[in-house]
Amino acid sequence: MKKHLAKILGLTVLSVVVLTGCGGAQPKAATTTPAPAPAPVTDTKTLTAVRTTAAPTLDGKSSEAFWASAPEMKLKLSNAGALQGGTGGKFDNGNTEVTMKATYDAENLYMLLQYQDPTDSMARGPWILESGKLVKKPYNELYEDKLAINWNINNSTQDFNDAGCTVTCHAATDKNGKTVTKHWTNAENELLDMWHWKYVRQNSLYGPDKPGLMHDQFMDSVKYDPADAAKAGGGRHSDPGDKEYIDNMTDDKSVPKLVFDGAALNGNPYVIIDGLDKTKPFTADYIKTMKEGDFIPGPIAKQITGDPADIKAKGKWENGVWTLEISRKLITTSAKDVQFDDLAKTYSFAVAAFDNSQIGHAYENLVHKLVFKR
After folding, report:
1. Domain ranges, residue 316
2. What is the number of domains present in the chain?
3. CATH number at residue 317
4. CA–CA separation, 238 vs 193, rounded Å?
5. Which of 79, 95, 232, 233 would suit a FRET pair with 66, their CA atoms being 20 to 30 Å apart?
6. DSSP string of 313-368?
7. pTM
8. Cβ distance 256 to 231 under 8 Å?
């Protein structure tokens, strides 16, 4: 096992990922293939999905030709770390720019997002050997990169289509009396569909080169109550189904539960994928095989199915830029999902991004519209 902390905590220079002839008896002038025209840019509030006959390969590379010509929408996110007392936040002074494109076919919506992030945050609360003892690192020190898209289901959430997620922000007090910001909608009939991509827990669920998932969640009007376990998450909930991960720790939380038995088959040594990686129980003798700074994964991710697993996604970080490709059926069977069942309609959404941050995220105080070009 080798150290990877330098890779996580080190900054990388930001850059933007940029997506002859035959001889014969009678020579002909050489020809060149013209470069593709730059993608048309829509206004900053409208994402236009164009029809395609081919699905993208979800690999986080944006190599398909149709992405180059799909209309491009750019948005700026800021204030990362302003929430929850300034924990997390990162990015470039809390700011990042996101480029979005969308295509669709008869069954699915496909989305491509690219955004600046100086660090590849591939650890989430790992166990690290420090001074001969295993230490569970806190989430405000080592956490994963994430991205969320919130959709207004049937335009049910009042004012969301104008103000975005800010209508769900509420000041609250946690169990220690500290003021925090929590999310819930403002009436019983108001629902948002939340697509929540979690790098460590979901990007490598089926292997390093295969699509993972975005966790399908929703938001309702349940108010945050730190004294009630059922309301500790406020209005944020997972779609009905199995939980997407568990913490890698024993019941008394004193030591890890499992360690790898061999290499991390999923490609990320900071997470154990249940059903993919080979593991063995942690024992005290295992520490004798570790060196100062070596680590054991913090989460055990689950290959969930059903309602909370109906959004496929794959992200790839390279040279300070995330490229994230997403696929979801236009129409699902879940009442907790936005349904793209009328291509003449517009669909309101808002975006947030997290850099090595559990809570503090970059956001914007406006909303965007998805439209389908037919």
Report:
1. 39-124+137-235+308-373
2. 1
3. 2.60.40.1190
4. 10
5. 95
6. EEEEEETTEEEEEEEEESS-S-TTS-----TTS-EEEEEEEESS-SS--BB-SS-E
7. 0.87
8. no
